[in-house]
Design goal:
Elements: E1 7-9, H1 31-41, E2 45-49, H2 50-53, H3 62-79, E3 82-87, H4 106-126, E4 130-134, E5 139-140, H5 148-165, E6 170-174, E7 183-184, H6 189-196, E8 205-210, H7 211-216, H8 221-230, E9 234-239, H9 258-270, E10 279-282, H10 297-315, H11 318-327, H12 330-342
Parallel strand pairs: 1-2, 1-10, 2-3, 4-6, 6-8, 8-9, 9-10
Antiparallel strand pairs: 5-7
């Protein structure tokens, strides 16, 4: 069964180029101008953090937040775009320095839960039922700082609260093993799927797999995708690439390892990804040295590489692959894949 592919990215993927060691290198682009770029680049979906939609949300009451979000929905409609998901940004506020859901201060945990409700309010206004949780600071720098049993229960409790708050939303957990925390509580997709079983509605708890996050865990992204799809839990992807076990680089998809990228495209396509409305998200960032007038090539290049790899994957002779598998001639199979990439 072939997949159906449509593409999304977030406004943070068109960025100024600041990093921990230096300032911005490109001028900021106004949000509406970023929306203009979506259709020009061949994208239809917009990924949001809650404060991408409502930047000053901590200063507003719930009704004001909804009102501001409705204005963003009007802009999306004007551009012919769709909101794929909304994610609560729970890692930049001073109250989340020790985690949101797992903070040792109960007032900080209360803030994280309330912010998550407001995120759901924004998603409703934007017309999306998908909430993404990147559990950025739900971990520790030292093991003794928190109790991992309690922390897991606190995260599950936060998800349960969200599921109860809106019976129509789905929660997609975006796992990552480290960074910014040294030890993360839900480091892989297997952990994420297990976490959903601690709620009363595991059918509404799924996964978003990011290529780089799987690589940082020492895992192959296509295997993580396959595991999640076997559980019917792969509801979105963030495709990118990673040059080794470093910081999260968000490089152009396929820019490091074309064969690894091919296997991701192939597992998605062969198992019908997108046929139930899933999006292919590209969480990629421009190189810091890229000039402003060509600082969107990482997005168009990633999409182009995906489509070229899809063409290669669909041109492969599946009967030949099955024969080589049956004969256990894996050297020949490997060469067949390499030759297909080298044409």
């Amino acid at each position: 069964m072939s997949g159906t592919f449509r593409f999304s990215f977030g406004p943070w993927n068109i960025h100024e180029g600041a990093d921990p060691f230096g300032p911005v290198v490109r001028e900021s682009i106004e949000f509406n101008n970023k929306l203009n770029a979506y259709k020009e680049l061949g994208f239809e979906g917009v990924q949001f953090h809650d404060d991408d939609a409502v930047p000053n949300m901590n200063d507003l009451n719930p009704e004001q937040i909804k009102s501001e979000a409705s204005k963003v929905k009007a802009k999306l409609d004007e551009h012919g775009l769709v909101a794929e998901f909304v994610a609560p940004r729970l890692w930049e506020d001073p109250r989340t320095i020790d985690g949101g859901y797992t903070a040792n201060d109960p007032k900080c945990r209360e803030y994280a839960l309330d912010r998550s409700k407001r995120c759901i309010d924004i998603a409703r206004e934007l017309g999306s039922k998908n909430i993404v949780l990147w559990l950025a600071r739900e971990g520790t720098y030292i093991r003794e700082a928190k109790d991992s049993v309690c922390a897991t229960e606190q995260i599950a409790g936060a998800i349960q609260m969200m599921l109860d708050y809106d019976p129509e939303i789905r929660v997609m957990i975006e796992s990552k093993p480290n960074e910014p925390m040294d030890h993360t509580y839900i480091p892989t997709i297997g952990h994420a799927i297990g976490l959903g079983l601690l709620t009363t509605a595991p059918e509404r708890v799924g996964c978003l797999i990011e290529s780089a996050h799987a690589i940082l865990a020492g895992l192959d992204p296509s295997d993580e995708m396959g595991y999640s799809m076997a559980h019917k839990k792969l509801w979105s992807v963030h495709l990118n690439d990673q040059n080794g076990l470093k910081f999260d680089q968000d490089k152009t998809f396929g820019g490091v390892d074309l064969r690894r990228a091919l296997n991701q495209v192939r597992i998605l396509d062969e198992h019908g990804f997108g046929n139930n409305g899933e999006w292919v998200g590209l969480d990629v960032k421009a190189m810091r040295t890229q000039k402003a007038d060509v600082a969107c090539k990482h997005l168009s290049n990633s999409k182009d590489i995906f489509m070229r790899l899809l063409k290669i994957s669909r041109s492969l002779d599946n009967s030949k692959i099955e024969q080589l598998r049956a004969e256990r001639d894996y050297e020949e199979l490997e060469m067949y894949i390499i030759e297909s990439l080298l044409k």
